[in-house]
Task: structure prediction
Amino acid sequence: MQLSNPFLHSLGVELVAWSDGGAEFHMPIQAQHLNRQGMLHGGLIATLLDAACGYAGLHSPEHEEEVHGVTVMLNISYLSAAREGTVIATGKVTRSGRSLYFVQGTLLSDKGELLATAQGAFKRR
Result:
């Protein structure tokens, strides 16, 4: 699946699933993604969850104009550290109105360990 987001692309993030109400991204952890302690950087975790949650409410059918949005609020709970492997960020819309939608997100290791969770509100533009 082609990702038209230069920032995410530069990080090695791959959009693997996207449907109405959900999105999933994968990212292999590389040395430049780690902080001084050798753990996946918290800002990158926030970026992955923001992307998965945001994209979850912005799907448009193929051959239709892209829908864009902005983050209104994003709360993240950091639960466990990751140092290697691939991380999987998912977002699922829990409620949607005309312009605002609410999403729950998770970040998992490729071994199934829950690394972080997110809850957010987003606005379609």
